[in-house]
Amino acid sequence: MSNIHHQQSSPSKNENILLETVKTIGLSLVLAFGVRTFVAEARYIPSGSMEPTLQINDRLIIDKVSYDFISPQRGDIVVFNPTKTLLSENYHEAFIKRVIGLPKETVKVKNGLVYINGSPLKENYLEAKPDYQWGACNCTK
Length: 141
Fold this sequence. Notes:
Umud Fragment, subunit A, 2 domains, four-stranded antiparallel β-sheet, 2 helices, 25% helix, 24% strand
């Protein structure tokens, strides 16, 4: 009796390594694209409009899932895309802002204070008082 040994040829082993590498890279790209598109995204702060809370060039990871399950609350920091009106005025980057008004509330800025339904909003996150008048705006969404 003789023993027969089967040796796997070298090209087949190299093909398997190549196939596994391509599958690993492909899966990594799909996961990275999926996470960035549907779950989380990295952003940086380009301006001082959110100071002192967020500084210019701060880096953030934006959660894209939470508001599918809960509604935004006053004080939350949110990211949103420009409206059609803002797009027509050449604003193309997403905005990063704080939620102030909630549905069915009236928001007004007067004499350096923000008012919600006629009552001043207690806010400790502004670097300086607003130096403009605005409102009243009824929040609908």
